[in-house]
Write a structure and sequence with these properties.
This protein has 16 helices and 2 strands. The protein has 383 residues and is mainly alpha-helical.
Length: 383
């Protein structure tokens, strides 16, 4: 093991130097550098250290979004993942303080998936505290929806009331995990049934069976990139894969739809693997990376999280996928500034676009922390 570490020291240094050049051409990386990233040893302590550094920067520089916003909800999911492996209680305490400040309420829009996202952290905190008051407002919200289903069944994105349904790709991260988690926490199957039903309703509408990717919403069905390929947003599909593994985490092993969920995951993972760029990250446009050459860490964080989760749960071939995860993680940590700020995060938007190198957002931090939690488990299993 030590010999292997020593033999790659020089190559790793080259890899770090190259990956720090944010606007380097997509294919500038040499085979030797690519090999270094794919085989670089990862120490659990190092993973945890960089996770805590990123989280500490975020705590010191709080997001200005509303505390029940979807941006925050994604960030909270990452903080809960960190709290699960860190010995420092401040991350869990920060989430408890957040929940108390929010009075454990979801966002203001009853049906909108974005306003359900914060519920994921509430349920995870309930699992620790076992205090029913932590999930009472969320149960009330979901019970209302079950008793008063959305009137519209139309998922066409610009149609009236379409966003009462999960009519856009991001929604599959925001809402379904909260519903499935609440079902697992309470033993109430009705929440699980709704999540499964609505997941497949959205998938039947937005999933491209040829490309094994999701359109962001119906507005993109006929759009094409400059190279003639379909438009599949990087972070949009990252939202889906992140949501998918969070559903699988709580979906009962004997559930009749589990094989279908697992097959969807494997099909998407195989496709996403082909979209990874030589530096280890994914671009804002999955099928036209040349047009969008900037590094992008939020979508890349979700892919790293989802692929690492699949490795840790035996759903993916380790020889095929682990090098990709290791390479992605190495480049993700290169995107962390000395003070802990996560950079290269695509701003809020529904499609690929350009942005500044130092751009950051709490949902990018959430994706990074989720990814780190699963990479930590991979690294721990090797030590």
């Amino acid at each position: 093991m030590q010999r292997s570490i020593n033999s790659f020291t020089g190559l790793i240094a080259v890899a770090l130097a190259i990956s720090s050049q944010t606007l380097a051409p997509l294919h500038a990386e040499t085979p030797a550098v690519a090999l270094a990233k794919a085989t670089a040893p990862i120490a659990p302590k190092a993973v945890l250290n960089v996770m805590e550094r990123v989280a500490d920067w975020q705590l010191a520089n709080p997001s200005k979004h509303k505390p029940t916003d979807w941006t925050q909800g994604a960030g909270y999911a990452g903080f809960m993942a960190l709290a699960g492996i860190s010995k420092d209680p401040k991350y869990r305490d920060a989430m408890l303080a957040m929940g108390q400040k929010n009075q454990w309420k979801a966002g203001p829009l009853k049906y909108h998936a974005d306003d359900h996202c914060v519920g994921q952290a509430y349920v995870e905190l309930y699992q620790i505290k076992k205090d029913p008051s932590l999930i009472a407002p969320l149960r009330e919200r979901f019970d209302f929806i079950l008793a008063n289903p959305p009137a519209s069944t139309n998922l066409e994105f610009r149609s009236k009331d379409s966003q009462q349904r999960w009519s856009w790709a991001d929604a599959l991260f925001m809402a379904p995990p909260a519903w499935v988690q609440l079902s697992a926490a309470t033993g109430e199957k009705k929440y699980l049934d709704y999540a499964v039903q609505e997941w497949w309703r959205t998938t039947d509408y937005l999933y491209d069976k040829e490309e094994h990717l999701y359109f962001r919403d119906s507005n993109y069905f006929k759009k094409r990139e400059s190279n003639g390929k379909k438009v599949f947003w990087g972070r949009g599909n990252g939202w889906v894969m992140g949501g998918l593994v969070r559903v699988l985490q709580y979906l009962p092993k004997d559930h009749s739809d589990r094989p279908r969920f697992e097959q969807l995951y494997k099909d998407m993972a195989a496709k996403i693997l082909t979209c990874q760029q030589p530096d280890g990250l994914w671009r804002a446009s999955l099928l036209d990376p040349e047009k969008f050459p900037l590094k992008e860490t939020s979508g890349s964080g979700f892919y790293t999280y989802a692929l690492a989760w699949g490795l840790n749960h035996g759903l993916l071939d380790r020889a095929r996928f682990e090098p990709a995860v290791r390479k992605a993680w190495t480049t993700l940590i290169d995107c962390v500034a000395a003070d802990g700020k996560l950079m290269h995060v695509q701003p809020i938007g529904e499609s690929p676009l350009s942005f500044k190198d130092d751009s950051t957002e709490i949902y990018g931090v959430g994706a990074f922390l989720l990814a780190g939690s699963e990479v930590y488990r991979i690294a721990s299993s090797r030590n």
